[in-house]
Design brief:
Elements lengths: L24 H16 L2 H13 L9
The protein binds zinc ion.
Zinc ion binds next to helix 1.
């Protein structure tokens, strides 16, 4: 019996990228902006958008 070493799952995970909060317009806009920046090859803008996303405050539950 050969002991199989643990193989890491091949999941593409972008390193430490905050995800937009569902239903948040600001997050959605930032996410779009980030994707656009990524498409145009602007890593600095991508970082800024990620940072803004991470810093965007949210209430835990907000239902009207
Ligand atoms: Zn937000």
């Amino acid at each position: 019996m050969t002991s199989s070493s643990l193989t890491a799952p091949a999941i593409h995970v972008p390193a430490l990228e905050p995800v937009p909060v569902d239903g948040c317009d600001v997050c959605g806009a930032l996410s779009r902006q980030r994707e656009a920046a990524r498409a145009t090859g602007s890593p600095i803008t991508v970082r800024q958008c990620s940072q803004e996303l991470a810093n965007h405050p949210h209430r835990k539950t907000e239902r009207a």
